[in-house]
Each structure stands twice: as C-alpha cells, then as structure tokens.
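Work Package 4 report. The design task specified in the project plan requires that, given a folded chain encoded as structure tokens, an amino acid be chosen for each position. We show below one input record used in the internal validation round.
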C-alpha cells in the first residue's frame, strides 16, 4: 500500500518529466494550473475518492487513504505483456 500523498507526488513528477515537455506553451500553462489545483486540494480529493463507488468496488484505496499501487502495477504489467507492444 502507498500513502495517497506519495502517489500524488509521483504523478506530479511524472507529469513534469513526461507530459509538460510535449505540450505547447498554452497547453502547459493550463495543465500546470489544473495540476496545482489538484495538488492544493488533495485532502478533498482523497476524501472524495475514498467515497467513490468505483474506487470502493475495485478496492483501490482503503479507509486510511492508502492506495493499492502494487496490485495496479501487477495488473498493468500483465496487460502490457498480453498486448506485446505498447506505443
């Protein structure tokens, strides 16, 4: 299990390294605004996700706000392997 804050920080680092560089200037500006609002409201987001029917149904997050990232990574690897090649 991974703490929600660590997951958010990892997603932000990924976006900064992989997403922003491929965007036009205006796209990047608006994306940075969206991401900063997301990060600034992470506690509200965490509470909303804990109460989300899909998050509960797929057992993604527990009551303590920890995210089951390990099982997601396992599922992701399985699907990529089945696909053979992902572009």
């Amino acid at each position: 299990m991974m703490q929600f804050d660590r997951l958010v920080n990892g997603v932000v680092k990924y976006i900064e390294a992989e997403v922003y560089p491929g965007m036009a200037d205006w796209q990047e500006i608006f994306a940075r605004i969206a991401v900063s609002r997301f990060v600034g409201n992470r506690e509200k987001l965490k509470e909303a996700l804990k109460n989300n029917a899909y998050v509960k149904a797929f057992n993604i997050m527990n009551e303590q706000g920890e995210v089951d990232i390990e099982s997601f990574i396992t599922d992701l690897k399985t699907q990529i392997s089945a696909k053979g090649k992902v572009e």
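Strands lie at 2-3, 66-67. Validation will be extended to a larger panel in the next phase.
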